[in-house]
Amino acid sequence: MNQPDHGGTGEQRPAAPYHPSPPPVDQLVTDPGELAERLTVGVEEEFLLVDADTRRVAPAATAVLAAGADISPVLQKEITLYQVETTSPVCLSAVELRDHLQRLRVSLARTAEEQGLRLVATGTAVLGEAVPPPLTAVERYQRMATEFGGLIDTHSICGCHVHVGMPDAETAVQVSNHLRPWLPLLLALSANSPFWHERDTRHASWRSMIWARWPSAGPPPHFASTAEYESAVRALLETGAAMDRGMIYWDIRLSDHQPTIEIRVCDVSPTADEAALLAALVRGLVATAVVDIRAGRPAPAPRASDLRAALWRAAHDGLEGSCLDPTTGHVVPVEELTTRLLDRLRPALLAGGDLTFATEVLRSLHATGSGAQRQRRALARRGRLTDVVDLLAAQTSGSLLIPAQPRPA
Questions:
Q1: 140, 163, 292, 326: which has the highest count of C-beta atoms within 10 A?
Q2: Predicted TM-score (pTM) of this structure
């Protein structure tokens, strides 16, 4: 079995469950629903560790990794000692994935509690981050710090990465083209990082703003072929914008070690329900894209500047704002665009067994508010950032569907 490079930093890691390749694209069915049944999906989630008493981020990853031997090899180190990462098994439905993610979160939260810590799912630290952050003792990370300097100072951020099985690299590149215009909506749905250095950034996803500073980050270009994709990768490597292929930080990239396409635009989700929702939507988008490719339907090709502007709008507004509709080119409320996307993906979600789950979680999400909105409400109640951290810890191993509370009118 190959060793996947799932992590945000590109370090070689213990083998994770392998995604079997679907058949070549010319053998795939032309119905997105039938295709969705064949596409595997997996998720990586990054978390922060905080001191249970002070609620400030704690450089305790080494202790948690040592204590979490029963979770290994799905529990992994990250670039800073504030962070840990989990890798899900390969799954065939959102409910199956949600159940795995929930078990991983509960187990990891319990391990953290035994060390006097709490596990929190948020894109950025609310309290107590040092600059520069303490790095994990890995030679590659030290080289990154030497080469990129201040960019490492803000690297203790947490995302959610969704992998979907692909039949071949050429198909994956074409799928990337079809998914590019939907990146802003995925970011808006996942926005869960309004606070940074103990203040409100006025953005719903400050993590994405931090991440965009890296020279190899952001939305990928529209590629005509795998050869053009590889040419762009070589340019990043030759200019030093990326030290190696693990530092190709595009919001969509091809895995070098598994037959998957990886969507990396999202903040880590507050709950396992929301993480599985994002995975279901991504798999539905991939299935629909493959059918469009088979039918010869071209991918929309928004200008890079327009796509970056749309991503900023999504990062600023989050779920409660507006987003660019890839099908019309007009800015519409995120809730309206989400409804349109659900209709577009209905055949794939239905056949993949994900439609009911996705509909229920989206309904709860719109009723409860985004992760960013929930964090801000927690602060507004008493003006205490420690209340925000307490909310995050409770959500991390909790559920969106059960304790959902309606937003105030």
A1: 163
A2: 0.91
